Predict the structure.
Amino acid sequence: MDRSNQPSPYKDKAFKRSAWLFLFLICLLGVLVMVSLASGYLALTPADIWRTVTGEGTAAHELLLYQFRLPRIVLAVLVGTGMATAGAIFQGVTQNGLADPGIIGIHSGSGFFAVLYLYLLTLNQDQPPVWVNTGLPFAAFIGGISAAVLIYVLAWKEGVTPIRLVLVGIGVNAGFSAALLLVQLRMSESDFNRALIWLSGSIWNASWAAVLRLLPWILIFIPSALYKARVLSVMQLGEEMAVGLGTAIEKERIKLLTIGVALSAASVSAAGGIAFVGLIAPHLARRLVGGKFQRLIPVCAVIGAILIVLSDTLARTILAPTEIPVGLIVSVIGAPYFIYLLITIKE
Amino acid sequence: MKKIVLGTLSLTLLLAACGNNEEDTELDPADGTVEDEDAEEVQESEGPRILTDGLGNEVEIPEDPEAVLASYLEDYLTALDITPVAQWSINDGEGVQTYLQDDLADVQTIPYDLPYESVMSVEPDLILIRDQIEQDMVDQYNLIAPTYVLNASPTSWRETMSEIGRVLDREDEAASVIETYDARAEETASLVQETAQGESAAAIWMIDTSLFVVHPERSSGSVLYGDAGFEIPEVVDQLSDDADWAAVSLEELADMDVDHLFLISDGDSELMEDRLWQNIPAVENDNVYTFDSQSAWLYYGPIANEQVLDHIDSSLQQ
Amino acid sequence: MEQIRKDQLTKKDTQKRLMKRLSAPHPAALILILSIGALILIMTASISIGVSDIGWRDILESFTAFDSSSTSHVIIRDLRIPRILAAALVGAFLAVSGVIMQALTLNPLASPSIMGVTSGSAFMIAVAFAFHPQSSYWQLILWSFAGAGLGTGMVFLIGSFSKRGLTPVKLALAGAAVSALLQSLSTIIAIHFNVARDISFWFAGGVAGVRMESVRLIGILAFAGLIVAFALSRSLTIMGLGEEMAKGLGIRIGWIKFISVLVVLILTGAAVSIAGTVGFIGLVIPHIAKKVMGMNYRWVIPGSAVFGAGLLVLADMAARTINPPYETPVGALTALIGVPFFLFLARKEGRG
C-alpha cells in the first residue's frame, strides 16, 4: 500500500545518513549540556564537574549541579523536544511551512487559560491548593485545544486551506493576547510581573518536580507522534493522493492536531510561550534529512532541544546576573529566521 | 526507524532515571532534616524547634542561625539587631533600601527574585520568605537551607514583626519593638490632634507624570491613617485595591479635596504646573511635603514606619 | 514634442474622466457631514463621562464662563478635552495610515499594527525609557518616529527581498515576526532596566493623562499629515486600479510612494508617541470607509479620519466606564473589536 515501506537501496542510504546525523546531533546536544552545566552565576570548572560526576565533589557542588542546573537543563531538553515536535506536526497537518504553534495562537490560548486558571484559583483564597501545579498542564491543554478548535472552525469554509488557517491563527493569537492583557492588568503587581516573566518563556525556577510533571506528557505524546509520522508523510502527497491511499484525512488530522496541542500545551505550562522553536526546528530538520516525517521528527526533536538549551545558556549568561526569559532569546534568534523563510518560501 | 525511536526513548528514560535517582538520594528534604536532628540531639537537650510556615510546611528552625536571608524583611531583622546575610536589591544591586543603609551598608546584595545560585552563594543557614511563593521553589530553597514562608500577611507589619520574633526565638524583643513604636506613634498622633484635627491627608508617589496613592492600611498608609490619625479621603478608600500603591489620575486627585499631601517624588514634574494641581486644597494652603523615593515611605517595617512618623512630625512643625 | 504634449493632455483628460467616473455619488459628501456631526456629538457626550460625572451645564459654562477655581471646569478643560481630542486624533491618524498603507500595497490586511510599525515605535520608546529616562515629550515623539521608520523599513525590506513581493498573507506573517522580534527586544530591555510596567502600558495603549501641549503639538502634525494625505488621494485612487495603468496615466509612482510612506510614518509615530500601540483601528476603519464612501480616496481618506476618530473616542469612553475607577487599556478593547474583523478578512482572503 505505502510505497515508502518498501526497501530500496536509496532508502537504506538515506536512513543510514539520518541515523548518523541523529547521533551527531545527540553528541552536539551532549556538548551543549556540558557547557550549560558549567555556566551560571556560581563558577564551576570542568574539573569540578568531573569530580562531582564521579562522586568526589563537594556537597555544595553536588547540590548546584544535580538540583539546580541539571533539572533546568533537562526541562529545557523536554520543552524543546515537545515544542519542536508539535511544530513539525502543525506544519505537516497544515502543509504550511510557516505554521508555528506560537504564531498561530495555540501558545497564547494555552497561556491565557493557564493564567486564568492561576488567577481564579488565587482569587478568593490567599493560598492556592497543593495540586495547583499539576493542574496547570491540563488547563493549558484545554486552552490549546480551544484555540485549535477555534482556529479550525473559523478557518473552515468548505474545507480548510493552509493559508486561511495561518491567517485565522494570527487573528486568534491577537484575540487571546488581548484577553490575556485584560486578566493580567487585574492582577497585583507581583503576580503581574511573575505572569509576564512566565509568559515570555522562562525555566529559571526549574526543579525535578517540574520535570516530572512534564515528563509523562512527553513520554506519551512523542511516541504517538512517531507512530503517526507515516500518516503525516502520506498527507504531504496531497489530499487526493492521501485519500486514495486509504487515509481518512479529517480523522487523522484531528488526531494529529490533538497530539500537537498536547505537546505544545504541556511545554507551555512548564516554560511559558516560547515561539519559533516549532518553526525553526522542523525547517532545519527538513533541510538535513528531507521531508519524510519518520526521519524528520526525531531529528527535529533533538534540534528543538539543542535550540532551547543553547538559548537558556545564553539567557543566563548574557546579562548575568539578570536572567532573561529564554523565550525572548529564542524570539530574537527565531524571528529573523522566520523572516528569512518568508522571503525564500514559494507559496 | 525503530532504532531512532528507541534512541529518543532511551534518552528520555535515561534523563528521567537520572531525575528519579537524584530525587531518591538528595531531593527529599526529610533526609537532610533527619541528619540534622541527630546532630542536634547530641548537642542540645532542648531539641529542635519545628514551626509550621505559611505554606503548611513544618520547618525546623536551626538554633541561633548566624546567616539569615530575609529578602525585603531586612527592616524587621535590623529592628531585632540582626544583620542579614544579604540584602534585597534590584538592577544588579544598584537599587537597595536606602533608608536602611546606616545599618546595612556592609551587607552584600542579592537580586530581588532570589535566583537559586545567588542564594547558594551567600550560604544562608535560614531563609525567610515574605510572600507566598510556589511550593516548588520552597522545595528548592530547602535544599540550600531551611526555608520558612511567613504566615503573616506582608501587608501587616505588626504580624510580620511578631512572627519573625517567634521564628528567630526573640519574641520578647519583637514585642518591645512594637511597644516602643506604638509609644512613639502616640506622640505624632497627639501632634496631629493639636495641629490638624479632622484634616485629611494622602501620600502620593509621583513617577514622572504617573501618580500612585498609598493604600490606607498598608505601608506608610497604615502610619498616616492608623497611627497618626489623619482622615482618609473618600477617593483613597474607593481606589484601594490589591496594591500597596494604586494608580490615581490627576482628576481623581483633584477630586480628593485633601488637606495634607505627602509627596514622594524625585524632582518636580510638569504635573505640578497644572491648574488642577494648583486647585488641590493642600497645594493652595502650602501643605505639600516632599520626600524622595529613596525615603522610608515606600516600605514596610518598624524602622521605615518610625522614619515616616519623623517625617510627619517635621512636616507639621514647619 | 507636440506628440508628447498631446499625450500628456490626453492623460490628464483620462485621469479626470476616470475620477469623475469613480467619484462617489453625492451621498458621500452627505455621509461625511453627518458623521462629522455624530463625531462632535460623541465627543461632547464623552466629556461628561468619567470618574466624576459632570453635568451639561458645567460643560457649557467651562467654555462660556471659565472659572479656574472650579475643579470641574478645570477637569473639563485640562483633562477631559485634551484626552478626547487625543483619542480623536490618534484614531484619525491610525485610520488614515491604514488607508494609505492598504492603497499602497494593494493589500487588504495592511495596517500599522499588523505590519509591525507600532511595535517599532513602542520599541524605540522602550529604548528611550531605558537609556534616556528624562526624555522630553518632543524627544519621545522623535524616538517614536524613528521606531515607526524602523518597523516599516524592516517590513518593506522583507517585501523587496521577497521574490513576488508581499502577498496579504506574507505581509501579515512578516508583520507578526517583526512585532515578535521588536517586542522581545523591548521586553528584554524592560526586564533589565526594571521598567516593565511602564512599557507594558505602552503596549496596551491608552490616552489617559494626555496633556494639552502634546495635543497641540500632535494637532499641528495632524493638520500637515492629513492635508498631504488628502493631496495624495487622487494618485492613490488611480494607483488602486493597478500600477501599470497608473504609470500609463502619468502618475509618478515612486514619488507618490515615498511621500505616502513618509505620511504613514509621521501619523503612526505621532499616534504611538501619544497613545501607545492601539491596534486594529488602521485595519478595520479603512474597510468600513471604503464600503461606505466608495472607491474614491478623496472621500475615503476624510471618511476614515472621521470614523477612526469616532471609534477611538468611543473605545476610550468604554475604557473609562467598564470598571471604574480603573482604566481598562483601550488597546485591548480595540483588539476585541478588531480581531473578529480580522478573522472575517482572513476567511475572505485565505481563499487561495
